[in-house]
């Protein structure tokens, strides 16, 4: 039974919107000019490939369903209470491979000693073998390195095999140049990493396991959806508010302008984290007192994520609204707007036909620039205790759960490293792409170079 | 000047009233005192008497806006809005949920916060500007390109990793600093240098990039070209012309955030166990102590507006072309 959570619907809407925008850009040459500059930038294209991969994971993780159970006594269909996604299905082998507790990356034994009862009745304290990690090895202490190397080699070959058709497609679609080389190289890197992980993950815990024995690689991949959602949806849900208020303040002036300015100065004057914390605390209390709003735990976590996006957006829209107001003030005095007004064109039509198309670059720049900051903010907010639902897998929750383990001896480092690697790649790609988009779209930087 | 200042202060009043109304709406209308009491006493199996008692202890049992039962002025003043919201204008924050005086706590906790936030800010400013200037000096060379990419990479690392990594390396592995804690007076230096270092390093990415764009904008102006045409050395152009003129937006921007330093840093303080306002706030959030969060929101707004006014004043001091009327 397919399940459509709120955030799923929004993420599909977002993807559809992006596709629609791409179609629009292709149809109108004047819109395509700045994007061609982005397409010619090797760094930006490499970043775009990485971002697309992360988005693909997020979309796969948003196709939710409730698995069917055997039919009930009267033959009616029954469904499990848990909500799974297509990604969970693809990574089922990782979900299944549950250990008892911590184990290091590629380990074959648990991280802590336990009492093991031997077949002859004695008990010894030793590191027990893992249930899944390296379980196929007869003698884990000797055969491991060779086995890992062999499997990694196989993974590299598989990755290369997957890369070849993709590379052929890219070579046909993109013009030769630095950008194409960058895309090919990034694709190769992604394919090789994915190939190695795909071959090794069923046999070993590549990033180790966490406190309850869950595979860290699985948790990291699941965290991607949360990060991408927060980065993308937050700006999306508040875009109407920012555009509506910012543009109308600039266009109509007078009372409207005063009211909007008052509104965003007031909101701005409250320190961001505190406003978010206050709002999230209240939202939490509301969810606590209204358990009838959701059926499953997943819906509850999802609702909380959606509210978090809304709250983050509420503190974020002021910056965009201010920029839009300033730009609209400039645009509305331009000759073509005055001419349109002289012809008796209505306000609504001037706004949609003349003002909005000429301030859209500001909206685009702000959306891509905000993305990375929001992904980072999620981690901090989860640490403060006002982030996503504690049961939801996210980078912030991973870091939060792992940071206390640094005090252990020897150190449990792999959770932090895994979260760091994935988060760093995502945010770095977003930052590089955003820089390029800003350089291409912003007339100020365009004239300077 | 005095007239201008007075007018700016008057402008601040409606904004503060807005903040006040907003917090009142959030904390008392959306979330009624009954909800709060139930949250604190546990959602299940809570008797109405217990809720009443909890509310009475904290003065939340009064009507929200209008007390019809009271006489005269008390009709308005003996309400939650007057007692708990308007009172903040007089900096009477009342008591926290565990019964301690919030204003007193703020006064003592302000200093540890400042001991970290102020040096971080000043040193960070100097380091960021230096890095930006060095990159500008090596313009259109590989040094600049690598530097800019390194800045983007540094910017892409979550601040949590800077803190966790720094604390782990310096305090645990090399044991150069205590892992957490704080002492008053000169002993504080032992505890604060590591948070300051981490704060400065973590801020370089975003900070230096921001100052670099400011300087680049300045470097593209005509007077810079004239200075170069006169045959001045690159270093002289950089320090005497670009830096000096670039300092105007930098200084005024710095003044704007200056008052907010009192609020401290939420994460840094809680990681290093510094008894400042940041950790105070974070503890309040975790304990769901709405009274403290409300007080901190209001205090933050006051400091933000103070920063805005200071910015305008500093413009006149740094840039003689700006006159405030």
Automatic annotation (TrEMBL), chain A:
Keywords for this protein: Cell membrane, Membrane, Peptide transport, Protein transport, Transmembrane, Transmembrane helix, Transport
Gene3D superfamilies cross-referenced by the UniProt entry: MetI-like
Membrane topology according to the record: Multi-pass membrane protein
InterPro entries, per the entry: BP-dependent_transpt_permease (IPR050366), MetI-like (IPR000515), MetI-like_sf (IPR035906)
TM spans (from-to): 6-26, 38-60, 148-170, 182-204, 224-250, 262-285, 305-324, 362-386, 412-434
Sections of the chain in a coiled coil: none
Domain ABC transmembrane type-1: 224-434
Subcellular location: Cell membrane
Major site of localization recorded for this protein: membrane
CDD domains: TM_PBP2
Keyword Membrane in annotation: yes
BP GO terms, sorted: peptide transport; protein transport; transmembrane transport
Protein transport is among the record's keywords: yes
GO (cellular component) term, any one: plasma membrane
Family: Belongs to the binding-protein-dependent transport system permease family.
Identification of the protein by name: ABC transporter permease
Organism field: Parasulfuritortus cantonensis
UniProtKB/TrEMBL annotation, chain B:
Keywords, alphabetical: Cell membrane, Membrane, Transmembrane, Transmembrane helix, Transport
Boundaries of every ABC transmembrane type-1 domain copy: 110-314
Compartments, record wording: Cell membrane
Membrane topology annotation: Multi-pass membrane protein
Gene3D superfamilies attached to this UniProt entry: MetI-like (1.10.3720.10)
Keyword Repeat: no
Broad class of the protein's primary localization: membrane
Membership in a protein family: Belongs to the binding-protein-dependent transport system permease family.
Protein name: ABC transporter permease
Organism: Parasulfuritortus cantonensis
Lineage: Bacteria, Pseudomonadati, Pseudomonadota, Betaproteobacteria, Nitrosomonadales
């Amino acid at each position: 039974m397919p399940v459509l959570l709120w955030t799923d619907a929004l993420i599909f809407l977002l993807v559809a919107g992006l596709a629609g925008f791409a179609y629009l850009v292709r149809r109108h040459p004047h819109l395509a000019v700045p994007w061609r500059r982005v397409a010619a930038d090797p760094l930006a294209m490499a970043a775009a490939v990485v971002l697309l991969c992360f988005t693909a994971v997020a979309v796969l993780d948003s196709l939710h369903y409730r698995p069917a159970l055997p039919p009930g006594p009267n033959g009616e269909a029954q469904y499990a209470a848990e909500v799974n996604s297509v990604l969970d299905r693809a990574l089922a082998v990782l979900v299944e491979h549950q250990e008892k507790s911590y184990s290091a990356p590629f380990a074959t034994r648990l991280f802590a000693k336990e009492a093991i009862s031997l077949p002859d009745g004695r008990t010894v304290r030793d590191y027990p073998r893992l249930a899944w990690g390296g379980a196929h090895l007869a003698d884990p202490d000797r055969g491991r390195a060779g086995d890992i190397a062999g499997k990694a080699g196989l993974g590299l070959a598989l990755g290369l095999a997957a890369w070849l058709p993709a590379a052929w497609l890219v070579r046909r679609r993109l013009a030769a140049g630095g950008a194409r080389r960058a895309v090919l190289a990034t694709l190769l890197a992604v394919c090789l990493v994915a190939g190695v992980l795909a071959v090794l993950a069923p046999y070993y815990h590549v990033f180790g396991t966490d406190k309850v024995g869950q595979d860290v690689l699985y948790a990291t991949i699941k965290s991607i959806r949360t990060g991408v959602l927060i980065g993308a949806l937050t700006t999306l849900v508040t875009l109407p508010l920012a555009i509506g208020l910012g543009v109308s303040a600039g266009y109509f002036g007078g009372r409207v302008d005063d009211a909007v300015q008052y509104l965003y100065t007031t909101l701005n004057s409250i320190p961001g984290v505190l406003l978010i914390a206050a709002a999230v605390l209240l939202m939490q209390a509301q969810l606590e007192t209204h358990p009838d709003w959701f059926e499953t735990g997943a819906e509850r976590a999802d609702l909380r994520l959606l509210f978090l996006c809304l709250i983050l957006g509420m503190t974020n829209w002021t910056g965009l609204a201010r920029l839009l107001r300033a730009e609209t003030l400039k645009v509305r005095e331009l000759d073509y707007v005055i001419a349109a007004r002289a012809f008796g064109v209505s306000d609504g039509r001037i706004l949609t036909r003349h003002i909005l198309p000429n301030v859209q670059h500001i909206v685009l720049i702000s959306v891509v620039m905000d993305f990375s900051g929001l992904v980072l903010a999620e981690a901090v907010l989860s640490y403060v205790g006002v982030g996503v639902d504690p049961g939801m897998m996210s980078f912030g929750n991973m870091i939060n759960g792992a940071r206390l383990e640094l005090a252990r001896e020897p150190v449990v480092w792999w959770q932090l490293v895994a979260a760091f690697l994935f988060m760093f790649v995502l945010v770095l790609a977003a930052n590089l792409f955003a820089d390029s988009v800003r350089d291409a779209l912003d007339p100020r930087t365009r004239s300077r170079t | 000047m005095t007239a201008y200042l007075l007018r700016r202060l008057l402008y601040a009043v409606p904004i503060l009233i807005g903040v006040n109304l907003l917090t009142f709406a959030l904390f008392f209308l959306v979330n009624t005192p009954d909800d709060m009491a139930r949250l604190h006493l546990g959602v299940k199996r809570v008797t109405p008497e217990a809720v009443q008692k909890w509310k009475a202890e904290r003065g939340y049992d009064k009507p929200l806006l209008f007390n019809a039962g009271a006489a005269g002025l008390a009709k308005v003043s003996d309400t939650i809005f007057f007692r708990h919201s308007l009172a903040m204008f007089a900096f009477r924050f009342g008591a926290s949920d565990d019964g301690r005086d919030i204003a007193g706590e703020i006064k003592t906790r302000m200093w540890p916060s400042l001991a970290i936030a102020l040096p971080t800010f000043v040193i960070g400013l100097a380091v960021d500007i230096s890095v930006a200037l060095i990159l500008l000096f090596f313009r259109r060379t590989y040094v600049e390109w690598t530097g800019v990419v390194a800045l983007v990479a540094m910017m892409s690392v979550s601040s949590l990793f800077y803190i966790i990594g720094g604390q782990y390396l310096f305090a645990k592995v090399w044991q150069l600093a205590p892992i957490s804690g704080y002492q008053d007076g000169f002993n504080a230096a032992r505890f604060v240098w590591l948070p300051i270092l981490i704060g400065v390093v973590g801020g370089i990415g975003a900070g230096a990039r921001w100052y670099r764009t400011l300087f680049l904008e300045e470097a593209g102006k005509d007077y810079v070209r004239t200075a170069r045409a006169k045959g001045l050395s690159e270093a002289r152009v950089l320090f005497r012309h670009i830096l000096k003129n670039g300092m105007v937006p930098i200084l005024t921007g710095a003044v704007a955030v200056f008052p907010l330093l009192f609020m401290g840093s939420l994460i840094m303080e809680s990681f290093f166990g510094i008894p400042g306002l940041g950790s105070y706030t974070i503890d309040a959030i975790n304990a769901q102590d709405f009274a403290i969060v409300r007080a901190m929101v209001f205090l933050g707004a006051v400091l933000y507006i103070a920063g805005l006014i200071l910015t305008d004043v500093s413009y006149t001091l740094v840039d003689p072309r700006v006159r405030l009327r």
